[in-house]
Amino acid sequence: MSRMQQEIEANRRRYEELRVAGQELTPKGLPEPTALDGAPIAPDAVIHREHVPAGWYATMRLRRGEALRIIDESGRSSVSLIGWREEDTSERINCADTVKVQWSAAIAKGRVVVSDMGRVFLSLIEDTSGAHDLLVGGSTPASTLARFGATTRNTQENFLAAASKIGLDVRDIPPCVTFFAPVSLDDAGHFRWQEGRKRPGDFVDLRAEMNLVIVVSNCPHPLDPARPEAAGPVTMIRHRVAAAAADDPCRTASPEAARAFTFTDRLFA
Amino acid sequence: MSNPDTFDAVYSFDIPAERPWSGVLKKGQILRIIDSEGQQAVDALLYCADDPSERYSSQDTLRVQGSAYIDLGTRLMSNRGRVMARITADTCGRHDTSAGCCSCESNAVRFGEATKYQHACRENFILELSKHGLTKRDIVSNLNFFMNVPIDPSGNFTVVDGISAPGNYVDVTADMDVLFVISNCPQVNNPCNGFNPTPIRVVVRDVPGL
Fold it and tell me: What does pTM read for this prediction?
């Protein structure tokens, strides 16, 4: 079946316009990274605070209008995250769509993480780091064995344990995003760990745009050359934040983000 | 290279444009996917035939390989860290596993709400997986054969014109019995199919001597 040449040309033009907007205009409008001493949380906004030891995981419910601050206290941890929409756990974090709709594998302040249903899952409303991984994923029994000669606590087993405790299983574990994991690619497509991109006290604030259940795993990223013993605890602070206004930087970052927010808002209309 | 039409082929099928397909590869069998007319993305998922909770994992595959693209020699890894299959021949040289599959919902985000009502790979996957007792929940981040998605050092991530010519093929050799599920990608909003989806061919061969 051949399509009208005009339609093909129109679709090609639209694609190129979207690419220019996504890769040339949007990055210029993104907010500056948060300062390490920036964005204090008012004490009465805090709902819950928890320290997750190195190697461990935590599961947390986040309602729309709440955010999760994750703080890498030691500057030696990475935090892998998966999650589901609370009311329908078949809807889940989707790294591929996150990368695709934003034309970038690099997420930072002003970007979003989307679900597989075209809705905004989490917004990065604060971020001191801007060095996060969506491609390589978390540690596994095989990755720790290959790297350290012994199977250590790892993200894959953490996710399995966490999912099982809320009635989910291995089928429900999607690819993860890992915060504080400075992975980049060279020109040939090889992954590289960027030294010097991690600082004690780096943090992200992840605003929930739907009602979510999320799991975080505090295990070193598989490309991190440091031994797992070097990792430290992370602090998680669940807190209340303002909803995404019409002029919210995550909402207005791109036409794609604006549409994803519109589709998300309909769940709550 | 042997001609799969005349030499040891045990199965062949032309998958029409925009349609799904699935089949079980026995350990050691080779699936040849032929981009019959060129520039056609082929979305693919693999499940362990004996226990589909073990399935293809893009992140495990990329971590083990240490690089971002699928090509000759790539081991396709499961979520349990086992090799499910390998790329044993490749006349195209560029395949993706980071971009996932298109869906009505992500199309609406990327290209505008009018594109929500266009056929998409996830629709194909849902329908094909239903034949095997699997659901949307079982759709993981997939392979995209013949899809050209360069990721540059800044993170820029772009679906660009495919480089596969008519007749280019990739061979996938099974390391275990695998359920192989394909969506012949219907996307018309980006260059992955040259904006014009076309048929592909699958051929299954036994390895001589096995």
Answer: 0.96
Query: Per residue in A103-131, pLDDT tens?
Result: 999 999 999 999 999 999 999 999 999 99
Question: Nearest CB to A104: which of B58, B69, B157?
Answer: B157
Note down the domain range covering B32: 14-205
Q: Residues of A with CB below 8 A from B53's CB?
A: 169-171
Which SS3 state, helix, strand or coil, does residue A68 take?
Answer: strand
B59 and A135 within 8 Å at the Cβ level: the answer is: yes
> What is the domain count for chain B?
1
Structure tokens at B124: 């194909």
Instruction: Provide the shortest C-alpha distance from residue A68 to chain B (in Å).
Output: 25
Mutate to test the interface with B, among A5, A6, A8, A11 (most CBs of B within 10 A): A11
Read off the pLDDT of residues A62-76 as tens digits, 9 standing for 90 and up.
999 999 999 999 999
